Amino acid sequence: MMKRNPLVLGNKTLKDVTDDICAPVERFPSKGWVGMFLGAKTLLLFYIGILASVVGVGIGLLGVNSPVFWGTMIVTFVFWIGIGHAGTLISAVLFLFRQKWRTSVARTAEAMTVFAVMTAGLFPLLHTGRPWLDYWLFPYPNQRGPLWVNFRSPLLWDVFAVSTYATVSMVFWYIGLVPDFATIKDRAKNKLRRTVYGALSLGWRGTAKNWSHYEMVYLLLAGLSTPLVLSVHTIVSFDFAVSNLPGWHTTIFPPYFVAGAIFSGFAMVVTLMTLVRIGFPEFKNYVTLDHMEVMNKIIMTTGMLVGYAYASEFFIAWYSGNQYERFVFINRAFGPYGWSYWIMVSCNVIFPQLFWFRRFRRSIPVMFVISLLVNVGMWFERFVITVTSLHRDFLPSSWGMYAWSWFDTGVLVGSFGMFLTLFLLYLRLFPAVSIAEVKPVLHVGYDDKGGHH
Amino acid sequence: MLRKSNTPQSEEKRSGSVKKLDSAAKVAADLWANQGSSLVVAGGITALTEKSKELQVAVNFLNSILGNDGKTVDHKGGNPAHKASYSDLASLIADMKGGKVKTLIIHRVNPGFVLPVEMGFADAVKKVEMVIYTGDRIDETGVFADYITPDNHALESWSDMELAAGVYSICQPAIRPMYDTRSFQLSLMTWAYLANQGPARLRDYETFYDYLRVFWKSDIHPKYGKGQGFEDFWQSVLQKGFTGDLNNGSSARSFKLDAFTSIKPAATKEGFELALYATSQHGDGSLANVSWLHELPDPVTKAVWDNYVMVSLATAEKHGLKQATVVELTVGDKTLELPVLIQPGLHDDVLAVAVGFGRTRAGKVGNGIGKNAFAVMSAKDGKVVASGLTATFKKTSKKYELAITQGHHTMEGRTIAVEATLADYNKKKSTGIPHPHVWSIWSGHEYSGHKWGMAVDLHTCTGCSSCVIACQSENNIPVVGKRYVIEGREMHWLRIDRYYIGNPADAEAVFQPVMCQHCDNAPCETVCPVLATVHSDEGLNDMVYNRCVGTRYCANNCPYKVRRFNWFNYAKLIEKPLHMALNPSVGVRTRGVMEKCTFCVQRIQDAKTVARNEKRQLKDGDVKVACQTACPAGGIVFGDLNDPNSAVAKIFKTEERGYALLEEWHAKPSVRYLSKIRNNDKESTGDQKGHGTAKQGEHS
User: What is the pLDDT of residues A4-17, one digit of tens each?
Assistant: First the structure.
């Protein structure tokens, strides 16, 4: 039998694990955390200002125009929704496949999912012309006679997909947190902390019955979440694929979008985990280079899947014989937005190839840079899909360019403010690694040969 | 004159190369072949050359030898009111300078703007003891006045006019004067009364209406009344709009050949020829404060909110000019800084600039839009010279962004605006018409009552854009301003696409009005999540503004890109008294709402109500949509496709030039285009699609 590296380093005892993971929640925040939080919070306030102006004055503050009726908000929406996928994949799919290495990264990956979906969810709501009427997109009983939502519209499917996804991933995440909240409650030294974490732990006692129910619920929720990994981005891709616009109207979109989502999600997990390892050095024993390496392998694999999709799209455009379809793809690569296409290709297909080499897969600086590049590339992928298809469609008389304004920049950059603020608060308030799940994968009680001490 | 067209007048200005001689010979041959039914014209600002009289002599000669005199040329008709000349004005200015004019009344003319400095109006008017200016604003001439007497708007006053010799009309007010103004006519009567001067009848009446009626009773009614009583005659003129007959008794005149003795061939000049022209939107700029006109794309350049100097592709290349580079234009001792617009099909030796821009006292909207090209005209011996001026230019390092509504100028080989030559058409009427094989597994909508449809004839369309303004006025369409046009937010529900065809240096243009095509398989309808755009049982693609949340998915899915979005709250910017210009039958749209052509659904409803009140069925012609009524060429036909006898149904069924735009996409539009037939003697090239021409840069 092949010898595996231990999943947790440093010969930790069960108490060490609890102490290490609870430490960031219990001690006074470090200067580094405070600095980053202030930065992120400032960005969030700026973001709120930008969104308030857009809602107050009009969506015209952004660069959307005729013919590019969808722009930064939709691009960034798909970007963040995609980011979310890695969390669900790690926490649910890998759970079902009994991949034990997931335990150290699952919690944070899932937190990332929840925050990414929250960040993403704002965009389709705020990018409408009249956001205060967004509730019309939900099929709720009303007194408007037969007036109802249009079940034929992919945008409506999107409403259901994203709201389901947000709900399920939030519940799944929360259920996983319950035993750990109880741990923090038990360790609490003041009443407020005890009360708050006590309430959050929903009366968890750690009894065998508790654990039995917990395991079953967790398994069921994992089962519920798994199809969502595929369905959400499939339905997001329908927004494009079901329309009749060349460059959008393709059957490859669902698998292509899912692969891209997992790709970008894992890249974001790597980015964040690298930062967590720097910010909380004690976590280096839990989130080890082995973990990072596995994720880098997934990044490379999905990167190539995405690359295959790019090639396949081109081939089909040519093979279809449809002049509009052909034009859109040639225009993508060699038209006025060609630069964005080549940023996408190089970041998503070319740079991840470095992960063929073990040295790079295990190098923190290399993977940090590549994971950032992948996310840049994936943002540009959505930009390429959305903008370059719209800006030159059927009638050349209507062709135009996206009128990028500084509000677009504000929306894009500001959304990171929202995400990072939530994420930093999470690191400070919630146990960032699942205590309950890490303990079973410890080597405590086992020797290197797999036998008992 | 700016663009190489096939109209004879453009040939008047050609000179030089062999190619030009060829085309002159071709025009001559065409004219000769059409004796008695051709027409040679030299008019407008482009005819104001140094030798404008000689030009007219030559034109008269051509018409005379072509036998057009008395046939296409009616020298007895015309408008007798348009007889004043620049030399009359020059002598008035001389009198003013000489102190001979004590009181000068200026009524709704703007010499302070349209005259070249050499005419000396500004100096002369200062020598006049009392200058009275009547108009609707203190414009470039009004500033010289001692007294301003605000005139009524034309819609607020009674008036009459002689439309052509022997044809008279009465203008009836449509509204009470909105402000404290007095009509010019009443002012004259009042002054005559107070001064106790002038003909008695001027002083006898208290209102201009009384005076007008008495004048018509005594002067017009006896001649044109045809035995009617005066009251009946008056009412019938008001209803009909005019009385009298066009004087068609014009006969051929003999041309005096000795008129030619004074004509000498023009000396060839170095440098560029400056072509000043009046645009179809602005003319002389007197309506420069109307934002509709500023945002109406120029039929050819598609630029809005500016004037510019047009140069040919070759000239731009030769001098390293780019679109929007600012050049300093020098004409004699005058200079003008203008951005460059590269114009396919323009003559290489011509620089063209539109007049009527650069008003300084037009009002809030029109002030400072573009540059005043009247300022580079000159005057010689009391004659304004606006044409044939020599100009040079100097490139500057400045850039000036132009707002152009159409950024791409060719059809990229797609079948969009179909055209064929006359030779093709004579062989096969449906030359170039696409017949894609389309089929569907769905049965489609049923239209048991009316089914509205429209036919647009590309052949009659000159791109004049009257339909665009008619649509804007009918449907309360907002104006967004230059900055937002640059950002791609113009709101026109009906736009005219202009594509260049053929060799860019000698490009021809084809115009295609595009509005909502009211598709049977409307791609917009399926994607709206809240059912804000739905299909009516009469085939209309209805837009429910109240329900629209503004996801803009419909616009993305529209292959014709005819949907327009309220990016901001344009309706809130409507200030008094602009609200009175709104059509009460059509709502204004709030921000965040999609809008588009409705096929003038309010007119359809009105017509139905009228028919119901008259207890009859709706008949063909009851509904006339706004663009249709405005088209001077009758190029737009609208009606019920379910009525087999309607004009539009016949076109749909029988017209071989008819096709649907992007028919292969199977959206099944309710609009048919009829192909353009070019009468240019060319044999079919088989190329309907045009070649690449200069890119002016898409709006970003």
Answer: 677 777 777 778 77
